[in-house]
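Hi all, posting the design record for the shared folder.

TITLE: backbone redesign
STEP: 1 of 1
STRUCTURE INPUT:
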């Protein structure tokens, strides 16, 4: 018998999620920061429920069902929807220049940090591993330079978060990937050097790792390390 329905919270928000997925964590952190009540349907990524294609035909988490039955997918679309739908939470600035600068930083992080993390994990041999670690370090250095520029602006207020002394939208969408440095250290011995050229990145990272907004849904290190095993070269998916 084919499945024709799926579980959701009638009249409220339902988030289809997985605690170890860094993309899904973006949506959880945005909902929490905006103080919106929601139900969670945890999706086992190794054994997805038969109804999940009705929620997201791409079979990926996160997906958010809104109270009117609309289903949104793509973590950055979901976080931006939450910011727009609940302006009183002030997740995004109303200043167009500040929004553009924030998007530029997220774009830099999206192209120079996120893919390189997975490239390091998936490296098949020593040469590939060395190249991808260098690409990640280059990205981290440039992210640090961009943080310096932002912290010298009025909106950056000297850091240590992107938007000054408060955890904000940038951390909501980047912090889960900063958390992925844990499995990267475990599997690939990758660490960010404690030197001047990485000082700004390390300052930002430290502030993130101590922030309640990060800690409240941070997966246990062991759980995260196990979940990332599937990316390691030679380990079957
Ligand atoms: N671009 C998507 C990426 C989401 C994604 O890749 N999620 C992963 C888990 S971290 C997933 O559901 N993969 C499907 C699978 O593992 O079968 C987003 O930003 O939401």
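Okay, here is what came back for every position:
SEQUENCE:
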């Amino acid at each position: 018998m084919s499945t024709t329905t799926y579980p959701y919270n009638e009249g409220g928000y339902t988030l289809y999620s997985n605690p170890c997925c860094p993309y899904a964590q973006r949506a959880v952190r945005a909902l929490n920061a905006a103080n919106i009540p929601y139900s969670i349907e945890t999706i086992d990524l190794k054994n997805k429920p038969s109804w999940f294609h009705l929620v997201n035909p791409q079979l990926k988490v996160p997906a958010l069902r809104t109270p009117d039955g609309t289903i949104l997918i793509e973590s950055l679309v979901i976080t931006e929807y939450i910011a727009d739908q609940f302006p009183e939470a002030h997740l995004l600035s109303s200043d167009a220049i500040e929004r553009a600068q924030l998007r530029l930083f997220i774009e830099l992080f999206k192209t120079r940090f996120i893919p390189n993390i997975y490239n390091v994990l998936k490296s098949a041999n020593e040469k590939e591993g060395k190249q991808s670690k260098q690409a990640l370090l280059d990205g981290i250095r440039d992210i640090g330079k961009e943080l310096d520029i932002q912290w010298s602006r009025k909106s950056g207020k000297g850091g240590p978060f992107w938007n000054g002394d408060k955890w904000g939208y940038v951390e909501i969408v980047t912090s889960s990937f900063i958390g992925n440095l844990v499995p990267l250290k475990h599997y690939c011995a990758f660490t960010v050097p404690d030197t001047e050229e990485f000082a700004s990145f390390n300052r930002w990272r430290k502030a993130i790792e101590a922030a309640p907004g990060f800690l409240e849904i941070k997966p246990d290190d062991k759980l995260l390390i196990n979940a990332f095993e599937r990316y390691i070269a030679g380990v079957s998916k």
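COMMENT: The chain has eleven helices and four strands.
Let me know if anyone wants the other runs.
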